[in-house]
Amino acid sequence: MDVSLVLTHDCNLGCSYCYTGAKFRKRMPRETADKALDLAFAHGPEAVQLSYFGGEPTLELPLLLEVATEAKRRAEAQGTKLVQTVTTNGTLLDADAIQRLYALDFYVALSIDGVRAAHEVNRPQMGGGSSFDAVERCLRLLVAAGQPFETISVVTPKSAPFLGRASSTCSRPGCPACRSTPATRPRGTTRRSRPGNRASSARQTRWPAGCAPGGR
Q: In this structure, are residues 132 and 120 in contact, taking their beta carbons and an 8 Å threshold?
């Protein structure tokens, strides 16, 4: 059983390719999270994967930790294998928060677009300003923690020229897994079918020569 929990629609970054549209402060009630756990653990499944998203889920870090703690309790009581993942921009995580996540056996996916030039093209703070230093600090804290995690880099036409340097930046500090994905419309979909996805606009799919997905 795989269950995704969107803890908040709010975010502290204003990424150009975000597909969730305009951000607003709407927090998942704890009661809703508990119902999601009821669904996930109904009928004693062998394995459960809980994925925590946003917005930026660490804006609701206390809620995230509460729900994850309850999920771990239920899994241990039922003998269920539990995998918990969180996808985060990392700007709000310090060493203590990272240790608390790992104490709950989290797998962390950190969004960072590589070198400063590539990252700042598309991932500014909400309202402007650089987010790179805060994200890079989180990357180093994750490496220092010595637990499995991965980085996720979204590649756009503006950041594509930095792709090689971006990959080496993410892997050089000791990151065990680095993943890059193009910000392009999935095959078979239309702009109208994905409202609010600025990354799927025609101007975003004009890639530099030799950099387009699939070699186009």
A: yes
